[in-house]
Recover the amino acids of this structure.
């Protein structure tokens, strides 16, 4: 209930600022919040839900794939020094490169459909989760690991009962950051060479100078971001209950 009140208060504050700017600028390019909400609900029986579903599918699947690939890799790199020494230079070279620059290459290799966009966002999520999880696993005190070994724990038990739960909270922190980046990159990837998704919907409306539709798409993308963040928070509460005490 308190979270709902927080969202309501934030929405009211945002709408007040939005209304003041719309009134001050007095331009069709920035309608009032009431007008934008009215247009948003007008779009719901049309194509907007389809574009929303396509974008949510792309970013959701990319986040899942990125976590499934990066989490075990990060845990292993963080605890196995010999493996980390081999792969760390490669990670340090590739991590700073803006992955969005590979979009034209992916479009040429994988086509204009879902695959190129999903691969791009997966790569972005993968590196952010990988680096954070690796560092979290490296920070686990050796005394904790040695105490588990003294109790007869094998390598698998140490990963399952020590390394994995100790690294999970920081992984979720990185995942929230990665999710925001993923949504931004999704908008960029959908803004050209495609005919579906919220990015396409927003840019197409902008090119037609259809500002009501454009703001409807923007509001839909904001709602998608809230849904993803709330799902991540729910999953973290289930997997890391000790962080919410």
């Amino acid at each position: 209930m308190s979270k709902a009140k927080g969202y309501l208060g934030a929405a009211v504050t945002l709408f007040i600022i939005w209304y003041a700017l719309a009134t001050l600028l007095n331009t069709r390019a920035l309608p009032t919040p009431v007008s934008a909400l009215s247009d948003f609900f007008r779009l719901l029986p049309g194509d907007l839900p389809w574009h929303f579903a396509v974008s949510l599918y792309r970013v959701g699947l990319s986040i899942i794939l990125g976590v499934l690939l990066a989490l075990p890799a990060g845990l292993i790199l963080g605890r196995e020094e010999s493996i980390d020494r081999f792969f760390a230079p490669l990670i340090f070279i590739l991590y700073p490169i803006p992955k969005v620059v590979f979009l034209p290459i992916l479009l040429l290799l994988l086509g204009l459909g879902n695959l190129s966009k999903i691969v791009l966002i997966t790569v972005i999520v993968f590196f952010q989760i990988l680096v954070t999880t690796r560092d979290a696993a490296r920070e686990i005190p050796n005394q904790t690991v040695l105490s588990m070994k003294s109790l007869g724990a094998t390598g698998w038990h140490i990963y399952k009962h020590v390394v994995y739960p100790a690294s999970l909270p920081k992984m979720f922190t990185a995942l929230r950051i990665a999710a925001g980046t993923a949504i931004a990159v999704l908008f960029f990837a959908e803004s050209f060479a495609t005919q579906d998704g919220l990015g396409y919907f927003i840019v197409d409306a902008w090119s037609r100078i259809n500002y009501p539709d454009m703001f409807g798409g923007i509001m839909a993308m904001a709602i998608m971001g809230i849904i993803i963040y709330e799902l991540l928070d729910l999953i973290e509460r289930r997997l890391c209950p000790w962080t919410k005490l």
Summary: The mean pLDDT is 88. The chain has one domain: 37-244. The longest helix spans residues 155-190.
